[in-house]
Design brief:
By secondary structure, this protein is of the alpha/beta class. Helices cover 35% and strands 12% of the residues. It has 13 helices and ten strands. α2 links the parallel β1 and β2. It is globular and about 55 Å long. The two termini are 15 Å apart.
Length: 364
């Protein structure tokens, strides 16, 4: 069989400068994710994902790295597909606070501000060499009454541009000191109109919902169970596999058992692996890696990769690169099928019905 030019370049890179599995080694172009592309050589090509399904182009205080610069970050990595999240819960416009964790009492409130900036940037600076999906992040899940009307406004102002909702907060303990109001069971029942609209449009929704905390590890699980039971036809992505800094001591077996039961029961549920907390406190702990690899291999059609990078004005490429590497570290140990579904984007392409296809993994 004749060698594909891309594979020759990668092979020479590996032999001459030892760049195997280096996320900065030559990455595939967007157009290469079409049917008939050369197989993916896991020994020489990056283990980091080609999809970043959880990427915040806007920060909590609105003072951000430019849209174009974030896209340049992607170009320097393996990522060619990304969700353009804002952050729907922002600090007051006149606040001098940039990190809500250091400003207890300062409200972090749902708003449309970041979404409109992202939409304007997409209109003006849409890249041809990256595939970006614009997401609505404004939704206040504890006060959902206006959500449908705001969705209609988005569609009027930016027709056919928004194709996702989230990350939106069901319960986020990190913001309890900043007046975050978790959704109640009654609130969840009031989501029916906008969830119906999302289902009609076939838009996924990414929900941040903490499992619990170190004192009560499963405290908030019933909230997510209610969402999944009430809205079984919606494409729901559970951000960070339910984890947070408030829950760092759950046994891997317990965590995996909860997620497995919910995936088995709810066919439209998916998980995202964004936020380095998963690797730092769970995947990399002694004895845990093999358990999570087996879980990923078993449920490989139900998982999306993401970095959870936030485009704060002082963040640099080195920060994004590290977040992408840390959140993708586990990819190295997955089966070829799981690697293709997750890291190479097949799950993402199928979820959104995109005309792209993940390359097959080269045989050994």
């Amino acid at each position: 069989m004749a060698c594909h030019p891309f594979m020759v370049t990668i092979a020479l890179c590996s032999l001459l400068i030892g760049c195997a599995n280096d996320p900065e080694s030559e990455a595939r172009s967007l157009t290469s994710f079409k049917s008939g592309a050369s197989c993916y050589d896991r020994t020489t090509e990056p283990y980091t994902a080609v999809v970043d399904s959880h990427l915040h182009y806007r920060p909590f205080d609105g003072r951000a790295i430019s849209f174009q610069q974030v896209n340049d970050f992607l170009r320097q990595t393996s990522v060619r597909f990304a969700n353009v999240y804002g952050i729907g819960q922002m600090l007051p416009a006149n606040s001098t606070c940039s990190n809500y964790l250091k400003c207890p009492g300062t409200p972090v409130s749902p708003t449309t501000r970041n979404d409109f900036v992202n939409a304007a940037n997409m209109l003006e600076h849409a890249p041809e060499d990256l595939h970006l999906i614009l997401s609505m992040t404004f939704t206040d899940l504890a006060n959902p009454e206006s959500t449908l009307a705001i969705m209609a406004l988005y569609e009027k102002e930016y027709p056919d541009m928004f194709r996702w909702m989230g990350e939106v907060n069901l319960v986020k303990q990190a913001q309890f000191n900043n007046r975050h109001e978790p959704a109640t069971p009654q609130d969840i029942r009031q989501w029916a109109d906008f969830m119906s609209e999302l289902e009609k449009r076939d838009y996924p929704i990414t929900i941040h919902s903490d499992l619990g905390n170190n004192r009560a590890p499963t405290l908030y699980v019933p909230l997510m169970e209610q969402v999944l039971s009430l809205y079984p036809n919606n494409k729901i992505i559970w951000a960070h596999m339910g984890m947070s800094y408030e829950l760092t001591n759950m046994k891997a077996d317990h965590h995996i058992a909860i997620l497995s039961a919910m995936l088995d029961k709810h066919s439209n549920l998916m998980l995202d692996t964004s936020w380095r907390i998963l690797n730092d406190y769970y995947f990399s702990k002694r004895g845990n890696q093999a358990k999570y690899v087996a879980f990923f291999d078993q449920y490989s059609k139900r998982i999306l990769p993401g970095s959870d990078f936030v485009a704060f004005r002082n963040n640099r490429f080195s920060v994004y690169k590290e977040e992408l590497e840390v959140t993708g570290h586990i990819h190295q140990f997955l089966s070829d099928e799981a690697f293709r579904n997750i890291a190479l984007g097949q799950n993402y392409f199928e979820l959104l019905k995109l005309e792209y296809v993940a390359p097959e993994v080269c045989s050994s």
